[in-house]
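Chapter summary example.
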Amino acid sequence: MNHLFSYIERTVLHPGITLNEQYEAFDEVTQLGLAGLTVSPFWVKKFRREMGAEHPASLATVVGYPYGYQRTEAKQTEVEWALKDGARDIEVVLNTSALFSPASTWVKIEFAKLVALIHAQEAFFTVVLESALLDNDQLKQMVKLATDSGADFLKNATGAVPGDFSLDRALHFRRLAPSSVGVKIVADGATVPEMEQLVAAGVERLALGHPIQS
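The structure predicted for these 214 residues follows.
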């Protein structure tokens, strides 16, 4: 799967992750030339130091992980610290709790506040949509809202909600997203041919939470 390495982002977000496992993922990113490394906010500063300023891979972290229902003010603080610590891609989890309530208009306001902070530091703004929780109309609505807000990438899942990989759902997510925004797909459980189909369909990033080397 060497030809896929430049599309793969290694994610190390599960709550039982050890420091050694994170270093193993970092070594994979460096040795295999992967696209990026996604760590929890607690570890951003450490891995920014390890990567240095010239490392070609992107260092990402999450905000509002895993369910997105924190107050916007808390997410703003998370964003500020993540940027200060050296993250260059901020993955913000959609507040589905607000979406499913009369407060749904707040989602648009929240995106507007966060994208301003992120783009001011010339970092990437990724919106994470837990697409398995959304019906098709809601998914279309949130894809449009995130795109209109200035998202650089849309991601189809957090990886924290249990569920099997579905190529059909992943390709549907790619089709819903306009060409002006990048797409990240959580590809744990996908076969190499399925990942090749995703890349051929225009998916820019494949997020893998498991080691590539064995």
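To summarize the output: The two ends are 13 Å apart (CA to CA).
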